[in-house]
Design goal:
6 helices; elongated
Amino acid sequence: MITRRSFFLGSAAGLILPTFYDNAISFLANHGEPLLVIPKQHESILYAVADSSYEFNFGDPYAGPPEISIREFYMDYRGVDDVNLCLLEEGCEPEDLPDLENSMSTWSEWEWFDTWARTESPNAIAYHFLAGFDLGPSLIGASAIGGISLIDGPMPGNDYLGAQAEDAVSVSLLQQRLNELNSGIRIELM
């Protein structure tokens, strides 16, 4: 499912001022990149990785999942106290029970990767953060400009979770909106 949020031009609270929008368009034309007004104080960096769109990430966008033991996975991500009992209930034969201190990637690499990708990956963290933030209306109107797409499984069999800006101006508008909300977040291009 893809939810699209647009920014709206206007002079009321929560709207992008037309002068900022014009400045963002001009800056892009002159410099070939988004206009990013850095907040006076920032605690976090939201990375915008440019490809055909701009994918947002909190943390290293190229990081993979950390090593985690089978025990840690079942206890921390499945809420299981007795891991061996859970594995037996899932159909594991007693003689096939793994050493719970082994890496989860040796037991079920894809289960760990899929769980991490939807909960703790840099793009999933950005998705969860931006989905809960007041970025603007989710409807498209006559004065709608730019857009942020919140993507949760864009097609059957794809569990991707992320937030993307459709263009450089949308990255500028997002930084401006984050500044207006005193979020303490600075967008940095990668």
